[in-house]
Specification:
Rossmann fold, 2 domains, 13 helices
């Protein structure tokens, strides 16, 4: 019997270290004689449905190793959710055809909450059809909102970037506040969970240091309390720095920045809350302001990667292969914290059914009583995740990243429209 092949997919928003996970998967697979070829799906599950598979045998060991320091998704990602097994029979049947055509024995799906759901459904589909395919979810998301795992690969580097950006921008604003800008607002991602916003709090060692205000999705926006805090900060320090999560809501539960559109997963399309907050400040207090939207920058900043995050991203990729070979179907490698100081962790295992469609919110005890800052408990949780520097190699003054060849393997099936 021929060796079974691995099919690896990247899904959802990519991170600065998701390619380190890909590196862990491919290097671990290459070291095991039970595995044949490792395929990367071009643009995630869409590539599987279209039978667009990238044979990683075309990539040298040196190129694969370079993935550790390259951001983005080396094989391409997508926002496409496989939903009901009955309503999308055509899609699930197509997966079976592709798996069979390319002798896929191990399906590794690298993504967040919605991707965990997809991986779980694929495992159910395979079982229902008697298909000998082991399905493993592999965690990643800068939102840090997957349950069970202590943290999500990708978050630590985003946290480091946000805290650094807030620290640097605040020094700029402080310098100019006497005769110019008095309020700086930085918008970060986080639809429902305020982990990234909380990370901005690491920029200051005490409540008087920036950011003086953090606006969390978990805390309803109180305009009067917010404006009072801004006014206090400007009068006390000469300026005010604000971190605002894109998912901030009013007392009625409405997003302050709901664009009225939906993304491919059916979530509200958010963005622009910094402008809303800036308008509130200008209308009520008249202060000159500037704002920034960190957007893709916060998830692609590989030049400022956390060493902890990089190591964990690689480790979950390697462990995913080990779980697959051990026949641990419908599971996911997760990070288990053993100690805060010194920070110690290990890789544990969770069931995909317990990971799918569950969001881990920022605990209330991580937010100060006034709702505008982080507590010491939150700082103890966050601090180890941004520790250590893992700079990429530089060439001609810029990071030297790699783009893998995406030459596709020969198709064996008729085309499939999605």
């Amino acid at each position: 019997m021929s060796k079974k092949n691995v099919l690896y997919c990247q899904s959802g928003g990519v991170t600065a270290v998701i390619n380190a996970t890909a590196c862990g998967v491919i290097e671990a697979a290459r070291q095991n004689e039970k595995i044949g070829t490792v395929f990367g799906a071009k643009n995630g599950i869409i590539g599987v449905l279209r039978e667009q598979l990238i044979d990683t045998q075309q990539h040298s060991d040196t190129d694969i190793a370079a993935l550790r320091h390259t951001p983005g998704g080396a094989f391409g990602s997508c926002r496409f959710k496989l939903k009901d097994l009955e309503k999308q029979k055509a899609e699930y049947n197509r997966l079976i055809e592709v798996f069979k055509a390319h002798n896929i024995g191990y399906f590794l799906y690298n993504g967040g909450g919605d991707s965990s759901d997809t991986a779980f459904k694929v495992s159910q589909m395979a079982k229902a059809h008697g298909l000998d395919v082991i399905c493993i979810g592999v965690p990643k998301t800068i939102d840090n909102d997957l349950p069970i795992t202590d943290t999500c690969p990708g978050f630590g580097t985003t946290a480091k970037y946000i805290a650094t950006s807030m620290m640097e921008a605040s020094l700029d604003v402080e310098s100019m506040a006497e005769s110019s800008t008095k309020v700086f607002i930085m918008e970060v991602m986080g639809r429902h969970a305020g982990w990234i916003a909380a990370a901005g709090g690491l920029a200051g060692a005490n409540p008087n240091e920036p950011p003086q205000i953090i606006l969390f999705p978990e805390i309803p926006f109180d305009q009067d309390a917010f404006l009072s805090r801004v006014k206090w900060s400007v009068e006390s320090h000469g300026y005010c720095s604000v971190v605002v999560s894109e998912g901030v809501r009013n007392a009625e539960g409405q997003f302050l920045a709901d664009a009225g559109t939906k993304d491919a997963f059916g979530h509200a399309q958010l963005g622009g809350v910094a402008a809303v907050i800036a308008q509130i400040v200008r209308d009520a207090l008249g202060y000159k302001y500037h704002y920034a939207i960190s957007d893709y920058l916060q998830r692609s900043a590989r030049h400022l990667a956390s060493q902890t995050d990089l190591e964990q991203a690689y480790a979950v990729g390697k462990k995913a292969v080990e779980l697959a070979l051990a026949g641990k179907n419908s599971t996911m490698p997760v990070i288990k914290r053993l100690n805060d100081l010194p920070y110690q962790w290990e890789i544990a295992t969770a069931e995909l059914k317990d990971m799918a469609n569950v969001e881990k919110m920022l605990p209330r005890e991580y937010i100060t009583d006034d709702g505008f800052g982080i507590t010491e408990a939150c700082r103890r949780y966050l601090q180890p995740l941004i520790e250590g520097e893992a700079f990429p190699p530089f060439k001609n003054g810029l990071p030297h990243y790699i783009r893998l060849s995406q030459r596709l393997t020969e198709k064996k099936l008729p085309p499939f429209d999605i």
